[in-house]
Amino acid sequence: MVTLAAPAKSDRRRPPRPGTGPGDRAVARPGLGWALPATLFFALFAIVPLLLVAVLSFVSWGGIGAPEFVGLDNWVTLLHDPVMIKSLWLSVLLTALGVVTQTPLSILLGVWAAGPQRNRAVLSAIFFVPLLLSATAVSVLWRALLDPNFGVPAQARWLFGDGNLLGSRTGAIAVLVLVGTWQFTPLHTLIYQGATRAIPEVLYQAAAIDGAGTVRQFFHITLPQLRNSVITSVILMVVGGLTTFDTVLILTQGGPGTETTISAFYMYQKAFKSFDFGAGAAIALLLVIVATMISLVVVRLSGYDRMASPKEGL
């Protein structure tokens, strides 16, 4: 009788998981204690000041003496203040113009800068110089360049007329948009440059095999891959646009008249020129609410909140 031998068991074993082998210590996830320093820092320098501003918006205080509780008086006064309503709409307008101008320009420059050529790296480094300057330095620089007496407009009156670009509402708004675009486009370009370099090269290779040219690859591969980066960039533009202050302070002083008095600058006037810190706090809290609402709308309309994976939609 012939007996069949049982098949020998394989000596191959699965490698032990990290931290479970002999002599290894069990690896546990970081506890809540690791997040405690960052949480305390955020609470101390963000949450607590925001709560204090909220409390200050319900009092009348000139900086000296004890604050006097006035309830909703500051809010009611602001809602009936035509300068406040105008400043809020102007802030939204400048923010929208910044998004419309900076987003396409940043995407194109970011995709171009992501190329491997050495000259692109050199030009990108030069282009990022405005990002290293403070908003105050940039505003002073453009104030000198646009001076109607000895600046660029004075040398090209055939193009700029009397040269006083900041003397009209349209000219002042155009200058603010131009300066903001010149200063902050490099930041968003850097975001898109990094995101473009993270796109798998195999997608472009497959598209090239299928006969897709550069333009089709851009619209059907690059732009969909940059979706999350666009959302992040737009939210940063919204928050930055609504809180812009120093550029208006140095370039236009809110003028001519109140044509460029945005909400952040009006808050400064109320608090530090009129010494009405309660009204200034109310304006600051209103800006926080408006910026949060716009950011939530952007996230909602983009579908970012419904993504099951960070790679969904690519």
Explain the overall architecture.
Strand 1 (59-60) and strand 2 form a beta hairpin. The model has no long low-confidence stretch (mean pLDDT 85). Helix 1 crosses helix 15, helix 2 (73-79) crosses helix 15 (277-302) and helix 3 runs parallel beside helix 9. Helix content is 64%, strand content 1%. The chain starts with 35 loop residues before the first helix and ends in a 12-residue tail after the last helix. The chain is mainly α. The longest helix has 32 residues, at 82-113. The chain has one domain: MetI-like (MetI-like fold, Orthogonal Bundle), CATH 1.10.3720.10. A two-stranded antiparallel ribbon has the order 1-2. It is a multi-pass membrane protein. Belongs to the binding-protein-dependent transport system permease family. InterPro entries: ABC_transporter_permease (IPR051393), MetI-like (IPR000515), MetI-like_sf (IPR035906).
